[in-house]
Amino acid sequence: MKRHLLEAADLDRDDATLVLDTAAQIESALTGREVKKLPTLRGRTVVNLFFEDSTRTRISFELAAKRLSADVINFSAKGSSVSKGESLKDTALTLEAMGSDAIVVRHSASGAPHRLAQWVKGSVVNAGDGTHEHPTQALLDCFTMRRRLGRVEGLKVTIVGDVLHSRVARSNVLLLHTLGADVTLVAPPTLLPVGVEAWPTAVSYDIDAVLPKSDVVMMLRVQRERMNASCFPTEREYSRRYGLDAKRMAVLPEHAIVMHPGPMNRGMEIAPEVADSVRSTIVEQVTNGVSARMAVLYLLLGGTGSQQSASKENNS
Ligand code: CP
User: Fold this and answer.
1) Is 6 within 8 Å of 106 (Cβ atoms)?
2) Ligand 1, atom 6, residue with closest C-alpha
3) For the stretch 186-214, what's the b/e string if a residue is b when 16 or more beta carbons lie within 10 angstroms of its beta carbon?
4) How far, in Å, CA of 105 to CA of 80, rounded?
């Protein structure tokens, strides 16, 4: 593993498999324990540096670090000296001066974690930067596919919706390709990025043609807050052309699963009866996020031999 996890491309196939295997080992090490904690990162400090709102990722990283017995500092830009004009660099150096070993950062600016990684000595983990990447979301998504379908390699994964603004889609396309899945993007042309032809995916504008061949359908949130102009005529029209409702879900193969990274626009990209159906892994993804993030922190901060110690703790 590299020192930082800034984007899905930081993980080659062996690294990604190691993270997923480690997440599974950690999960089984904690199953049935009254106290859901491992001593692995005792004495280490993890800072959650969030400049943009988050529910799942922030709490998940906090829980992951605490379950590994690390000390955790939660920093949110609101209420900090950022409001007095303090820069990202000075904020990071201040936190490092207080002894942080890893910084988990979410920022509205694409590339912010990369800049941070140039300034600090510890590890940096990208928890979502602008419209760029969200690598731990892709890891937890692949972990969920493996749990539900037994593998990632060879799966036909359809990613539907606002690809243009989606860091989740970018990270998933890369990681799924690394792990040997077959990815198709479905979106209106206005919600596909320039240069998508160079991505390792197929592209379709017709969700109904792709669904019957999909093992996994990953619905993306329509990110209205990032849209400067109207990318589709009306919400109703978007929903009619690209939304996943019960009728569309019925044409999926019997084993297929429905994913969404959250937060959802219920009734727009996904109908409530689909989000709450037995095929939906949305809540499971949140649970799996803690194991996947524990694995990332463990491998970045625990150093070599981490996996062997996970196995030992698992067996003890
Ligand atoms: N999936 C995801 O990143 O959710 P949050 O914005 O709530 O962290």
Assistant:
1) no
2) 54
3) bbbeebbeeeeeebebeeeeebeebbeeb
4) 15
Q: Which of 106, 147, 165, 167 is catalytic?
A: 106
Which residue of the set 31, 33, 78, 84 is catalytic?
A: 84
236: its two tokens: 């109703």
The CA angle 271-255-258, to the nearest 5 degrees, is: 30
Instruction: Pick the catalytic residue from 134, 147, 221, 293.
Output: 134
Whether 312 is catalytic is no
Q: In what side-by-side order are the strands of the sheet with 71-76?
A: 71-76, 45-50, 102-107, 123-129
Residue 305 confidence (pLDDT) above 80: no
Strand 123-129 and strand 71-76: the pairing is unpaired
Query: Can you state the percent helix, strand and coil of the chain, rounding each to 5?
Result: 45, 15, 40
137 CB within 6 A, ligand 1:
yes
241 phi/psi in degrees, rounded to 5: -85, -35
DSSP category for residue 311: H
* Nearest-angstrom CA–CA distance, 194 and 14: 30
Pocket test for ligand 1, best of 53, 55, 226 (most atoms within 8 A of CB): 55
3-state secondary structure of 270: strand
Its pTM surpasses 0.90: yes
Tens digits of residue pLDDT in 94-112: 999 999 999 999 999 999 9
